Amino acid sequence: MSNVDELISFNNRITDLFESMEKQDGFRSSEGWLNGIMYDLYSKTKRAFQTSNVILNSDIPNNYIEVLPQLRIILESYLHSNYIRLNKSDGDRVEQEYKDHLAYQQWRLGRTLNELKEESPKEIDDYDEYIQSFFEGKPKRNRVQHLESIKDLSKIIHQFELYAEVYTMLSGYVHYNPQTRHSYGVAKDNETFSYSKFEYNEALDIRIRKYILDFTISVIRNMTVYFELKEFMRGDFFKVDNDWRFIVSRVV
């Protein structure tokens, strides 16, 4: 079995792990505002993982490039869930930070929509309710810098290496960067570039697949610890995590 095939076959283990965790009473019955944030991060991770599998199973040439936005979602979910897990004992403060973060995001969007309304040559009434609810007459909301900036968040939880080596690489595929054009074709020289030809990069394919699996498992680990799913941790998660570590040690 090739390295790529081994990684592909492990996807089913992750899918089964999602299903197993969702059956745990401690995961299904948790309430609270901050728990809701963790559920949101879990859902985003699961959907991004499923979407990446759809793309990777497609016949799109070099399809591994197209899952990078999904990988970025999973990585962000890992960093946020890790921050919440590490600060669970100070849950009231963290919850207020995320509430302030939400309020700031709503205020900022309201400001942008209000600017659009003022500058548009035509009458725009579609956003009046939102502007009135979150911006008009409202003071500027408190900005939580480490929730606004993934870079700052990564430093707080001592994961800056992930930000520098992985997240910044992904940014070039989410936001336009001419440097990434070589992933969408073949460069013959500095002046000639063919967009109709693709050269498969097995090393990059493996690297991206490993990141997706590794960060997804890391999110599940954060959920397992945060919700204190001890039986799940000792059982299904331990088996998958242990097998994954063995694969990582062999797949270069």
Task: Give a description of the structure.
The chain is an all-alpha fold. It has one domain (3-250). It is 69% helix and 2% strand. It contains eleven helices and two strands. α3 (33-56) packs antiparallel against α10 (202-226). The chain is globular, with a radius of gyration of 21 Å. The protein starts with a helix and ends with a helix. The model has no long low-confidence stretch (mean pLDDT 90).
Compact overview of the structure:
Helices cover 69% and strands 2% of the residues. It contains 11 helices and 2 strands.
List keywords for this structure.
252 residues; mainly alpha; 11 helices; 2 strands
One letter per element, helices H and strands E, the order comes to HHHHHHHHHEEHH
Total number of helices: 11
Radius of gyration, taken over Cα atoms and rounded to an integer in Å: 21 Å
Task: Please tell me the total number of domains.
Answer: 1
Mean pLDDT, rounded to whole units? 90
Annotate the secondary structure layout:
Layout: H1 3-22, H2 25-28, H3 33-56, H4 68-86, H5 91-119, H6 128-134, H7 145-148, H8 150-156, H9 160-174, E1 186-187, E2 193-194, H10 202-226, H11 230-250
Helix pairs in contact: 1-10, 1-11, 3-4, 3-10, 4-8, 4-9, 4-10, 5-6, 8-9, 10-11
